[in-house]
């Protein structure tokens, strides 16, 4: 089986750590990072890109245009 | 939408609604004709984020400014973006009369039930029992009155064409809010008159809860008071 | 060819706006300026432009803001209590550097006052009026003809300087009838392009017109720019009429209706051999400080006459810089100075 690549991108500098994306992800592959961005915000990271279905729910809920899925 | 990070708090609904508006304008090919009027309130800086012509209005006079712009440029898409303080308190007269004249404009009404910019004071739309900076003993009907339902007030005006109350607490509702915004713009383009989309939006900072909890509050508490759905459709 | 007919001041003012190419009018009824609103409701329709009877004066001035930001020539009119409400929008026009014409047909105050003529809004009109550090250009007509001429001119000046312009008339001027005359083929003057206007951002970068300037020092720089503009207006736009001031021992200073009464007094006193003149400011802001100061240098005495407790008086004092030489006669709350009162005051000087 060919490896599935997820084209979900998180702009960690735009992320404000509201975590709304984590809440709506149906496959639970987003989580708060242990690191912070330049503004001191605990941003969101993608844990398992291969599980991403490209459903765009996370991007839809993001108030800060921090998530793009191509 | 300009490539600029917004000044909004984490989990604030304004950023999301801004994006929905921009998506509608892009998808409908309206960027070159759009003129927006920003309110006084948290969204006062909307003109820093939108890549189309934008201006401001004195607090609450937003529909009056939009009325005149639309009368001067009837072929342009003209919309106001207003919060509950701007629209439902200080600008009550302007919104009622713009609706009553049947002005061919669109109004995006973001209702988060609180004054965000000034520090979380009570709004006309604040729920009973909700504690704010200026309802420290919570909002009580005998002292602070009742949550004001502008949509239901506007419904009786013959000049008003389309009213819908939406929310952004879930992806399903976000999709629906976007559809309503598009419909409002289309109503205007078709020359069918005044339309308004209310969007129930979270203010985690002044609701005193996390963004995730705020979205749950919309579903569990706010929607109990403010029923979602089409309030009027004569388009 | 000239058009000449008998008109009220209010209607002459409205026709002046029409001839200046006013594209948008919004107003709310208030006495003694109702003839302007009624006249505009007919004439704006006839010219194919927009008339709106707004829900309030607050709304009317914000509609003027909207029409102006959209690039149109726009006007509103009211009388004193209504003009107080309009201060909100006038401040926004000034802050956003938007042109707009505001007519104030003054009546007695404070509060609801009465519907008689008055000049007690002088401070409000000339010193800013709303919040912030700004001025509106203020014209003071003294005849029905000047109601037409100054309103016509106001639109060009508003556009030239991107600033609110006020016509400060009074109830008498608004209601009285006199002949008004203008060229049949008079066209709007002083048209300018408005690249900043809200028109839709087709083929250009998006425009943004706002007065909220939060960046460090940005508002201060904006205010400095406004002050530069005000300095230029003070230098170029002062207007006044002087009558027989060259040899005068006494110069009366009065504007609007009191200017007319003073003119009549002057003629009577001259017949009696009193060397008296009249200085009538036609712009109240910018105020003719320099010109009055020149008169003061001749050693003349001054009599300021107003339908107020002495508001323009303060500006005359600043120009003359010698209070001992200045007398004042004023009537309050809708009272009109009589010729007898003025002549008696002059004779006591």
Name the beta content range of chain B: 15-25%
Structural class of chain C: alpha/beta
Note the beta-strand portion of chain C.
15-25%
Q: Order of strands side by side in the largest beta sheet of chain C?
A: 3-2-4-5-7-6-13
* Biggest sheet details of chain C: 7 strands, mixed
**Span between N and C termini of chain B?**
28 Å
Q: Helix count of chain C, per DSSP? A: 12
The largest interface is:
B-C, 36 and 40 residues
- Mind telling me the CATH class of the largest domain in chain C? Alpha Beta
CATH structural class of chain B: Alpha Beta
Describe this structure as you would to a colleague:
With 70 residues, chain A is α+β, with helices and mostly antiparallel strands. Chain A has a single domain (8-69), classed as 2-Layer Sandwich (Alpha-Beta Plaits), CATH 3.30.70.20. In chain A, 14% of the residues lie in helices and 26% in strands. In chain A, the strands form 2 sheets. In chain A, strands 1-4 form a two-stranded antiparallel ribbon. In chain A, strands 2-3 form a two-stranded antiparallel ribbon. Chain B has 235 residues and is α/β, with parallel strands linked by helices. Chain B has one domain (13-209, 219-233): 3-Layer(aba) Sandwich (Rossmann fold), CATH 3.40.50.970. In chain B, strands 2-1-3-4-8-7-9 form a 7-stranded mixed sheet, sandwiched between helices. Chain C is an alpha/beta fold and 349 residues long. Chain C has 2 domains: 2-236, Rossmann fold, CATH 3.40.50.970; 243-348, Rossmann fold (3-Layer(aba) Sandwich), CATH 3.40.50.920. Chain C is built from 12 helices and 15 strands. Chain C has helices at residues 9-19, 34-46, 57-69, 80-95, 122-126, 144-161, 171-175, 218-236, 256-271, 289-297, 312-320, 339-348; strands at 2-8, 24-27, 50-53, 74-78, 100-106, 137-139, 164-170, 177-183, 208-209, 240-243, 250-253, 276-281, 283-285, 301-306, 326-330. The model of chain C has no long low-confidence stretch (mean pLDDT 97). The B-C interface holds B 31-35, 37-38, 44-45, 47-48, 50-58, 61, 64-69, 71-73, 76, 93-94, 96-97, 101 and C 23-24, 26, 50, 52, 54-56, 58-60, 62-67, 69-72, 74, 88-89, 92, 96, 198-203, 206-212, 214.
């Amino acid at each position: 089986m060919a490896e599935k690549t997820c084209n979900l991108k998180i702009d960690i500098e735009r992320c404000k750590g509201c975590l709304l994306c984590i809440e709506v992800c149906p496959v639970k592959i987003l989580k708060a990072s242990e690191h912070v961005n330049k503004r001191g915000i605990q941003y969101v990271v993608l844990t398992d890109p291969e599980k991403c279905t490209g459903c765009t729910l996370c991007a839809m809920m993001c108030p800060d245009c921090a998530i793009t899925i191509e | 939408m300009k490539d600029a990070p917004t000044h909004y708090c984490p989990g604030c609904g304004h950023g999301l609604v801004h994006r929905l508006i921009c998506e509608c304008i892009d998808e409908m090919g309206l960027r070159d004709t759009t003129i927006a009027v920003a309110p006084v309130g948290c969204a006062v800086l909307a003109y820093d984020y939108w890549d189309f012509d934008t201006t401001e209005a004195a607090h609450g006079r937003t529909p009056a400014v939009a009325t005149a712009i639309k009368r001067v440029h009837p072929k342009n898409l003209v919309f106001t973006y207003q919060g509950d303080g701007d629209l439902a308190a200080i600008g009550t007269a302007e919104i009622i009369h713009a609706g009553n004249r049947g002005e061919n404009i669109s109004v995006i009404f973001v209702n988060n039930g609180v004054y965000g910019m000034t520090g979380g004071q009570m709004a006309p739309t604040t729920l009973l029992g909700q504690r704010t900076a200026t309802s420290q003993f919570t909002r009580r009907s005998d002292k602070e009155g009742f949550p004001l339902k502008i949509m239901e007030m506007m419904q009786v005006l013959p000049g008003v064409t389309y009213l819908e109350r939406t929310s952004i607490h879930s992806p399903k509702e976000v999709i629906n809010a976007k559809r309503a915004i598009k419909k409002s713009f289309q109503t205007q383009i078709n020359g069918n008159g005044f339309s308004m989309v209310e969007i129930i939006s979270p203010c985690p900072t002044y609701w005193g809860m996390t963004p995730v909890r705020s979205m749950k509050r919309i579903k569990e508490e706010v929607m109990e008071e403010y029923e979602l759905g089409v309030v009027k459709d004569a388009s | 060819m000239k058009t000449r007919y008998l008109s009220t001041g209010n209607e002459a003012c409205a026709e002046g706006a029409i001839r200046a190419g006013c594209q948008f009018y919004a107003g709310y009824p208030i006495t003694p300026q109702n003839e302007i609103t009624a006249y505009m409701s007919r004439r704006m329709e006839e010219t194919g432009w927009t008339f709106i009877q707004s829900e309030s004066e607050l709304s009317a001035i914000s509609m003027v803001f909207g029409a102006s930001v959209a690039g149109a020539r726009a006007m509103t009119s009211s009388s004193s209590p209504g003009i107080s409400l309009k201060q909100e929008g006038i401040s926004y026009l000034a802050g956003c550097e938007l042109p707009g014409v505001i007519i104030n047909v003054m009546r007695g105050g404070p509060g609801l006052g009465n519907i008689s003529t008055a000049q007690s809004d002088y401070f409000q009109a000339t010193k800013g009026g709303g919040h912030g550090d700004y001025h509106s250009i203020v014209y003071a007509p003294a005849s029905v003809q000047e109601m037409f001429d100054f309103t016509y001119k106001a639109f060009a000046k508003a556009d030239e300087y991107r600033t609110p312009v006020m016509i400060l008339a009074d109830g008498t001027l608004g209601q009285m009838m006199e002949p008004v005359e203008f060229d049949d083929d008079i066209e709007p003057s002083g048209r300018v392009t408005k690249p900043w206007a809200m028109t839709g951002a087709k083929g250009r970068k998006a425009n943004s017109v706002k007065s909220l300037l939060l960046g460090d020092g940005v508002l201060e720089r904006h205010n400095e720019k406004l002050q530069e503009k005000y300095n230029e207006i003070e230098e170029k736009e002062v207007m006044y009429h002087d009558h027989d001031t060259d040899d005068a021992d006494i110069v009366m200073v009065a504007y609007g209706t009191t200017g007319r009464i003073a003119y009549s007094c002057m003629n009577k006193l001259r017949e009696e051999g009193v060397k008296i003149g009249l200085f009538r400011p036609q712009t109240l802001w910018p105020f003719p400080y320099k010109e009055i100061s020149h008169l003061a240098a001749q050693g003349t005495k001054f009599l300021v006459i107003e339908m107020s407790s002495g508001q323009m008086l303060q500006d005359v004092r600043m120009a003359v810089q010698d209070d001992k030489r200045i007398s004042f006669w004023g009537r309050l709350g809708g009272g009109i100075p009589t010729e007898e009162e003025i002549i008696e005051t002059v004779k006591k000087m």
